[in-house]
Amino acid sequence: MSSPTHFDLIVIGTGPAGGTVARKVAETGKRVAIVDERTFGGTCALRGCNPKKVYVNAGQLVDRVRRSNDQLVADASTRIDWVKLHAFKETFTRPVAEGSEASFQDSGITTLHGTAKFIGVSTLSIAGEFYEAERIVIATGSRPRTLNFPNSACLISSDDFLDLSQLPRHIAFFGGGYISMEFAHVAARAGSRVTIIEKNSGVLSGFDPDLVKTLTAHSHQQGIQFLLNQNIEGIDVLGDESRCIKLRDGQTVSADCVVHGAGRVPNIDRMQLDVAGIQHDQDGVSVDAHLRSQSNERVYAVGDCARTAQPRLTPVANEDARIVAKNLFADRPVRSPDYGMVPRACFTTPAIASVGLSEEQARQTSADLEVRTGDMSDWSSVRKTGKTVAGYKVLIDRDSDAILGAHLLGPGAEETINLFAMAMKHNLTAADVKSTLFVFPSFSHDIRQMI
Questions:
Q1: Which residues define the annotated binding site for FAD?
Q2: What is the pLDDT of residues 355-397, one digit of tens each?
Q3: Number of domains in the chain
Q4: Which positions make up the binding site?
Q5: Is residue 140 located within the same domain as residue 156?
Q6: Is residue 314 part of a domain?
Q7: What does the pLDDT look like over 150-188, one tens digit per residue?
Q8: Which of 43, 101, 367, 448 is 20 to 30 A away from residue 150, measured at CA?
Q9: Annotated binding-site ranges for NAD(+)
């Protein structure tokens, strides 16, 4: 083996977490390299959060016009032009793809291309070349879970869905999580028949079940079919644009396109982590409180590929990156992430959002729990947007007046939930929040009625 090229830091992955670490360390004068096996920029900017929200906004716009018929508008006959929507999405992703690598280089960071594989404790093989570093950060994100049934390879990923130049007439989504529900709402409002196949008894398992039930019923009214307690046993490919999906109970479903929404896993399986003595499992790299590998002190992991108790979300990855950038070359790592209460939202139409404990968890924590819940569909803030569903559930400990959890469904839920997250992080009581003056009329002002 030829002598490896040496760096102070090599970052594997060019998403928001990896990019942040690389730039912050480069600013200190360290010699930094960053590598990716795909186009520089990461999932969030190129294939995830940002382009997805362009599609979601289109669905929300069409939905609001349609449900405002004879109330706010005279003609609700609007539709999504999929070709133009796809082209508009490209105006967000193309500049990132074209400029990300150059931006790293302008910061004095060496850019490398290929799959990084460990061949030693701190040595990597990348595209036939060898590199070593004092520190290595794994920031490779996640990938779709591998499926094992006949013709599973014919499913398309969420990446592929965002790159569809034409919308199929009938789309089936396998799995009832974020990806399937968000894209199903967009596709249905764009005119496709939509079917969601879910192995459990309900979708969106991470959100409040009562609000999910309301959202599911509303989704069905929008033309989304749910096949629950089902699994795919195999798929027959009947042509370029025809799929026959075989279900566990013997049913078959015909679709033009089947989208993989059945979960994601840390993208670490091709890196030969065992060679470097890096402990890991299906949930990611085993890290300590400072995000350093528990078995290789020269390696750190951030974001979706780090095994923490946090949800795999961009804000979590960003916080990981902030901390790791400070810990990497400290005399000893002492900083730990301060996640606070991490809010989550699924961008269905309307959105569903959550922060803190579920009702079940809160009942185990609080001896005197107050569950404040209600239907907001008739509240003026909601009715002004047209007819839709909305609801809330806020969990309060009566003894301390602490807000233990908040769960929202309806217009603006993805924004309003952030106020609950901030209140909970800074230990504001329900009385503190209720006494706060908010802009009126606004969705934020509704918080005072919820608590």
A1: 53, 140-142, 304
A2: 999 999 999 999 999 999 999 999 999 999 989 999 999 999 9
A3: 3
A4: 53, 140-142, 175-182, 198, 263, 304
A5: no
A6: yes
A7: 999 999 999 999 999 999 999 999 999 999 999 999 999
A8: 43
A9: 175-182, 198, 263
